């Protein structure tokens, strides 16, 4: 019987094919072009099996067939939803791309569970999205486990869009790099280890990339806000600076990406609850996504200049740690009253933003797991006073499915952080639990003078539970692909 389980061996090859929901009550399944070709090679056997094996496949569902083709021991047929879908204004994403990612991921994971180690994937009319679904779905962090997940090599089947497939592979590998860094335990990914990992990833692109790993330089730059966060830790802080020069015009103003790099966040003296504190190994998600996006841009050889900044440190409690009520001085001379040492991300970003503007960037995007007071798990929340930049970000997020959501940047929030008893600014504001994501953005705005700046708070999408069906549970690596898509948009149309 084709539908029952079979013995698997390491030499098994699998195939993932797509099928659309049928239009109307009559007629059989609507196969993709690649699935149609496969079906013809079997004299219609696939179509017949789909008709007799159960109800029509719904979006994201799959059905497995064994032994129907000499080259493929297992064939997973996956539901793509309706063929007529596209960009959905209500959902703020391209539904067809999301459906392809979800379906292909489901098929690939099903084959991976059967220990199939080579899979050919139907491009489903959008090879880039198919590649993203395959590689994002197959990723699982098991580096420190004795028993490893089956490693699956995925390649395009039945399509000539190899360029789109390879682009999708690079987009997904970039996001998987961010996931790898975010999942790793904090004793493995220290600030120094993080910087070394990114340097290693960028080594093949040395002709276009310059990397600076700075230590004592942080003090020379008088980054008092950054230094105040790292004081309690025994791990040395690192200021990672990456220059990707992809534009043929060396004078082109760069896109500046700044990522929060707290490799472990205990909260400092304002200690976090112990429950789920282990997840704070991923509090460097901003730095991980920023650096991974530059690795991807370099792999794609995007014709754009990008500078990435990642202030890297731990936030730990000790006799040397910053105390609530202390006042620190940022690089631009502004004084900050630190009323909550667990609101540390904005402090390290403040100094990084001040420094980054010395490069006269065309646009600035900072990315951070900043606040838990406004967690909306299906999207990346953000603020910007630049309509042009926000539109670029929004357009990129529709393509990738990350979905950015713009929050207000009212003067009301600025007053919350500038009304400080002891200093120019307060790091949490008068009402620390009210509109925290907006007050955090208002705080960062005090350190930005550039005309085009956006802040992305990714705390709500740091990990994936079941929000994104084409990825397993764990750290998400979002919004790496959106940052790459933003850079690509600026390169080609900006």
Automatic annotation (TrEMBL):
<keyword id="KW-0732">Signal</keyword>
<keyword id="KW-0031">Aminopeptidase</keyword>
<dbReference type="GO" id="GO:0006508">
    <property type="term" value="P:proteolysis"/>
</dbReference>
<keyword id="KW-0645">Protease</keyword>
<feature type="domain" description="Cytosol aminopeptidase">
    <location>
        <begin position="340"/>
        <end position="347"/>
    </location>
</feature>
<dbReference type="GO" id="GO:0005737">
    <property type="term" value="C:cytoplasm"/>
</dbReference>
<dbReference type="Pfam" id="PF02789">
    <property type="entry name" value="Peptidase_M17_N"/>
</dbReference>
<dbReference type="GO" id="GO:0030145">
    <property type="term" value="F:manganese ion binding"/>
</dbReference>
<comment type="function">
    <text>Cytosolic metallopeptidase that catalyzes the removal of unsubstituted N-terminal hydrophobic amino acids from various peptides. The presence of Zn(2+) ions is essential for the peptidase activity, and the association with other cofactors can modulate the substrate spectificity of the enzyme. For instance, in the presence of Mn(2+), it displays a specific Cys-Gly hydrolyzing activity of Cys-Gly-S-conjugates. Involved in the metabolism of glutathione and in the degradation of glutathione S-conjugates, which may play a role in the control of the cell redox status.</text>
</comment>
<dbReference type="GO" id="GO:0070006">
    <property type="term" value="F:metalloaminopeptidase activity"/>
</dbReference>
<keyword id="KW-0378">Hydrolase</keyword>
<dbReference type="InterPro" id="IPR011356">
    <property type="entry name" value="Leucine_aapep/pepB"/>
</dbReference>
<protein>
    <recommendedName>
        <fullName>Cytosol aminopeptidase</fullName>
        <ecNumber>3.4.13.23</ecNumber>
    </recommendedName>
</protein>
<dbReference type="Pfam" id="PF00883">
    <property type="entry name" value="Peptidase_M17"/>
</dbReference>
<comment type="similarity">
    <text>Belongs to the peptidase M17 family.</text>
</comment>
<dbReference type="InterPro" id="IPR008283">
    <property type="entry name" value="Peptidase_M17_N"/>
</dbReference>
<feature type="signal peptide">
    <location>
        <begin position="1"/>
        <end position="18"/>
    </location>
</feature>
<dbReference type="InterPro" id="IPR000819">
    <property type="entry name" value="Peptidase_M17_C"/>
</dbReference>
<dbReference type="InterPro" id="IPR043472">
    <property type="entry name" value="Macro_dom-like"/>
</dbReference>
<comment type="subunit">
    <text>Homohexamer.</text>
</comment>
């Amino acid at each position: 019987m084709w539908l029952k389980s079979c013995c698997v061996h390491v030499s098994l090859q699998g195939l993932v094919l797509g099928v659309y929901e049928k239009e109307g009550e009559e007629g059989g399944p609507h196969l993709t072009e690649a699935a149609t070709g496969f079906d013809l090679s079997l004299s219609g056997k696939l179509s017949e099996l789909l008709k007799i094996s159960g109800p029509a496949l719904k979006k994201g569902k799959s059905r497995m067939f064994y032994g129907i083709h000499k080259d493929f021991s297992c064939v997973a047929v996956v539901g793509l939803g309706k063929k007529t879908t596209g960009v959905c204004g209500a959902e703020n994403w391209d539904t067809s791309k999301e459906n392809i990612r979800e379906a292909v991921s489901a098929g690939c994971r099903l084959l991976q569970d059967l220990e199939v180690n080579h899979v050919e994937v139907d491009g489903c009319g959008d090879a880039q999205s198919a590649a993203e679904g395959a590689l994002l779905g197959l990723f699982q962090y098991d580096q420190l486990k004795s028993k490893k997940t089956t490693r699956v090599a995925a390649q395009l089947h039945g399509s000539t869009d190899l360029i789109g497939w390879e682009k999708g592979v690079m987009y997904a590998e970039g996001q998987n790099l961010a996931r790898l860094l975010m999942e790793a335990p904090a004793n493995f990914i220290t600030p120094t280890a993080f910087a070394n990992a990114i340097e290693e990833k960028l080594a093949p692109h040395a002709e276009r990339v310059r990397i600076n790993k700075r230590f004592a330089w942080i003090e020379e730059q008088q980054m008092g806000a950054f230094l105040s966060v790292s004081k309690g830790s025994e791990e040395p802080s690192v200021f990672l600076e990456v220059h990707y020069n992809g534009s043929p015009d060396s004078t082109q103003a760069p896109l500046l990406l700044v990522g929060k790099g707290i490799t472990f966040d205990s909260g400092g003296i304002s200690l976090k609850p112990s429950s789920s504190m282990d997840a704070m190994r991923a509090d460097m998600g901003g730095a991980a996504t920023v650096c991974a996006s530059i690795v991807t841009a370099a792999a794609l050889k995007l014709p754009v200049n990008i500078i990435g900044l990642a202030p890297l440190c731990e936030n730990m409690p000790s006799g040397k740690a910053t105390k609530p009520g202390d006042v620190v001085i940022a690089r631009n001379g502004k004084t900050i009253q630190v009323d909550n040492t667990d609101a540390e991300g904005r402090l390290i970003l403040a100094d990084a933003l001040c420094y980054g503007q010395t490069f006269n960037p065309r646009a600035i995007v900072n990315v951070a797991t900043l606040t838990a007071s406004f967690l909306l798990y299906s999207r990346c929340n953000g603020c910007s006073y630049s309509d042009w930049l926000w539109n670029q970000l929004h357009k990129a997020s529709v393509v990738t499915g990350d979905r950015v959501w713009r929050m207000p940047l009212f003067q009301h929030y600025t007053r919350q952080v500038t009304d400080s008893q002891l200093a120019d600014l307060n790091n949490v504001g008068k009402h620390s639990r009210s509109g925290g994501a907006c007050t955090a953005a208002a705080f960062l705005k005090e350190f930005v003078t550039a005309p085009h700046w956006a802040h992305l708070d990714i705390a709500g999408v740091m990990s994936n539970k079941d929000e994104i069906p084409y990825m397993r549970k764990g750290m998400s690596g979002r919004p790496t692909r959106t940052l790459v898509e933003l850079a690509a948009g600026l390169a080609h149309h900006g």
